[in-house]
Amino acid sequence: MTSQQLNKINSLSERMLMWVLLSCTFDTLLLAGFAHEGLINGRIAVLYGALSLFFNGVYYVLIKSGFNRRFKDPSMTFLQLMTAALMQVGFLVIAPEVGYLFLINLFAVYAFGMLRLTAGWYLASWLLGALALSIPFHLVGVEIAFPITGHITKILVYLSFILTLGRCMVIANMLGNIRRGLADKNQELSIAMKHVQELATRDALTNTKNRRSLEELLAVEQNRFQRSGSPFCIAILDLDGFKGVNDSFGHAVGDEVLKAFVQIVHSQMRLSDHFARYGGDEFVLVLTDTTVANGMTPLQRICDETAQYDWNQFGEGCGVTASIGVTNYRAGETIDIAFQRADAAMYAAKAAGRNQIVASDEPGYVTSATQAIARAARA
Ligand SMILES: Nc1nc2c(ncn2[C@@H]2O[C@H](COP(=O)(O)OP(=O)(O)OP(=O)(O)O)[C@@H](O)[C@H]2O)c(=O)[nH]1
């Protein structure tokens, strides 16, 4: 148990002791009232008050001195419960004329136990309580009374019931606090879990999805394709000349370039697409519900935006472009095979002079460079 947990237990135990002491004080006053009415000897009220003070004092000293930390249950709930229960049974024997009071007190005593006792300890305390109660009920043969003998005793009995209900309210409030604490802890835990999940699926530098998350998303898209035939294509985007940026301007500038590139892609992609950092200066864009034929337009925009971006803001002469390889996912193949095709296409784009798109094997979309040449020839 951590010292923070122990401190919490101690503060709860101290609060409980205060309530128990207050409760015992009321009982002592009620007993004094019954003594005044001649139902019991006045010394019984004094003894009840003195024993309450003594036992609560002992537990207070144990808690304050830290001695309770040596126990398996530092709250000492079982010990306190048994002390209180046996005290009630003892007084039931010596003052059966007001025996109802000690019997209803047992409810409050056992209810306090609910705050901390495990089922096993609760069962043990119940069995011990039952055993102890057998003494006044069976062996001693005392007359346990409900002492309404006049107007005053009626008020005293009424007060004792009201006070018992009050004790139940205090216990309900403590249980409510425990429940609220648990609910708060649960919420904190689920927020922390969400955060951990975010960290596990996000790239820390660029805040895009990471490779692990990409693999999961690709598996989802593959399933969707198999179920509904919804097409998707995989594009691998690799920066050109990024090593040069790092070498000339430093790693920190390189990081800024990566983040800016992510912004460019985010500004051009659809919300339903998936974008992830694969590693280093290599990224993957999964275009959902899209074939390469349709995907070429946003990819071309990314290529163009990257080439036209004001990289000089990071340093005079700083600049990168993007080479992109893209392929359709084909029925029945593994993601790995599609990935290899996209990778080969990306290397083809590099080999063809960088800053362009190569579609793996789509007729009519060999490279964006050939499209540009065709456009120029038409013009
Ligand atoms: N600043 C920064 N650099 C990184 C990070 N991860 C990898 N790199 C660097 O990125 C560079 C990637 O190398 P290359 O892909 O060969 O560089 P390139 O100049 O773009 O080469 P081509 O792709 O052939 O155009 C290496 O120098 C890595 O050290 C990162 O998180 N931050």
TrEMBL record:
Keywords: Membrane, Transmembrane, Transmembrane helix. Its EC number is 2.7.7.65. It is an enzyme of class 2 (transferase). The chain crosses the membrane at residues 16-36, 42-63, 100-119, 126-149, 155-175. It comes from the Bacteria. GO terms for biological process: cell adhesion involved in single-species biofilm formation; negative regulation of bacterial-type flagellum-dependent cell motility. GO terms for cellular component: plasma membrane. Residues 230-362 form the GGDEF domain. SUPFAM superfamilies: Nucleotide cyclase (SSF55073). It catalyses: 2 GTP = 3',3'-c-di-GMP + 2 diphosphate. This is diguanylate cyclase. It comes from Glaciimonas soli.
